[in-house]
Amino acid sequence: MAYTPSSSHTSFLFSCLLTFASFHPHASSAFPFLTPLVFKLLSFTCAFSFALFLQAIFTRLSPLPCYLIDFCCTEAEGNVAVTEEVYTKFITKWRSVKESNLAFQEKVLLRSGIGNESYAPMTLLSKAEDVDLQDAREETENLISVAAKRLLQQVGIEAREIDIVVINCSLFNPTPSLSAFLVHALSMRSNVKTFNLAGMGCSAGLLSISLAKDLLKVHRNSYALVLSTENITSNTYFGNQERSMMVANALFRCGCAAILLTNKRSYRRRAKLQLLHCLRTHLGADEGAFNCVHHLQDNEGKPGVVLQPNLVEVAGSALRRNITKLAPSILPLDELIRVVLSMIGKKVFKSKDVKVYEPNFKRAIDHFCIHPGGRAVIDSIGKGLKLSSYDVEPGKMALNRFGNTSSSGIWYALAYCEAKGRLRKGDKVWQIALGSGFKCNSGVWRVLKNVERSECSECNPWLSSIDRYPPAASILQG
């Protein structure tokens, strides 16, 4: 079929002709039916329209950004602070608890680096083994609804404006799903796109961010609400046989983070952060890595999360592989050249004395938010990256104040940096998440504006306690 130019195409071609003709010294003679003044006005209008057209083409073809407008971490929300005394009373409520196992869990708690202000569900502490599905549901539904409502209220966006919802909770997966509950609780639109990630472990927070980022690439002018949490009520180990399952009892606590993302370019000056890189590493093909964190039952049929002794070693291996792929994207050129030259030197001379250069990541990253899974893991990562006590402070303080809140832990660490007034425009933040599978995920963000301490809202869980942290040098030094 023959091509017939539309009126819009004809108008555009005419404007292009006028635009280019206006640059010719005798251009007006080509249009004798136009007066010089009218010709100049039309030329200016067409040139301006052509510039707008080029800008629209450029905007359409350039990758969509991923801005973090704001985030919110829950604090107590009706839960109980787990002091050493509260934890001991909780364990003694168990039926047929052994004295040796009681002493073991108290020992793990004392060495964990967790203080007396982390939280656990009131129903769990009072009912212990008698908790049921409804108790577990109430714990998680309360956390995610409070976090989401508080965040949306803070940024001034209605729930019906949300286009994408991603929720991750590893060990609690009711029907209807948690994402369905949130749609119901906040009265969201019927065409909202919802996703519920389960079984992904403590690293799932950045997996959710990665999924939301990919969705924002194809759905223009959208808001994505991401929630990361874990359920404590339904996954506490009440057995006496497996001490590897008892470790998780002493480490895990209540927590939830809500993050609001968008690809709207108008938020360039209003958003807090922009996602630069999101990298995932999965060691599931390795037998030892796959089994180091497992949800199992003991011989009596009591479920619990097994944390194997090789966890720190596996975490280090996963981080090294993750860094190998991430480093070329974030390190300065001279650091990369040093690494390459040292690798060539080691290959040529084949000597044990020639070591591969370990890059200085502090030249590329200003703030490190390490997953607060345990003091040993944080120390291991800090040592491997040659970080100072100042650099690992956010992760250690998040662990001390809130415990291991699973996938939301890296957001409590970021909230610590924010409450301390550390985030300045242009800074780069590296979030490092580790979890079962075994997975290591990295998220690198650029700070888009200065975040002052006085600007912290109720969305920041450190608001009332930041001046008391760090409480003691011994906590940072391990």
UniProtKB/TrEMBL annotation:
It is an enzyme of class 2 (transferase). GO terms for biological process: fatty acid biosynthetic process. Its EC number is 2.3.1.-. Residues 364-446 form the Beta-ketoacyl-[acyl-carrier-protein] synthase III C-terminal domain. It holds the Pfam family ACP_syn_III_C. Residues 64-348 form the FAE domain. Gene3D superfamilies: 3.40.47.10. One of its GO terms (molecular function) is acyltransferase activity, transferring groups other than amino-acyl groups. InterPro entries: 3-ktacl-CoA_syn (IPR012392), ACP_syn_III_C (IPR013747), FAE1_typ3_polyketide_synth (IPR013601), Thiolase-like (IPR016039). The chain crosses the membrane at residues 40-58. The keyword Cell wall biogenesis/degradation does not apply. Belongs to the thiolase-like superfamily. Chalcone/stilbene synthases family. This is 3-ketoacyl-CoA synthase. It comes from Adiantum capillus-veneris.
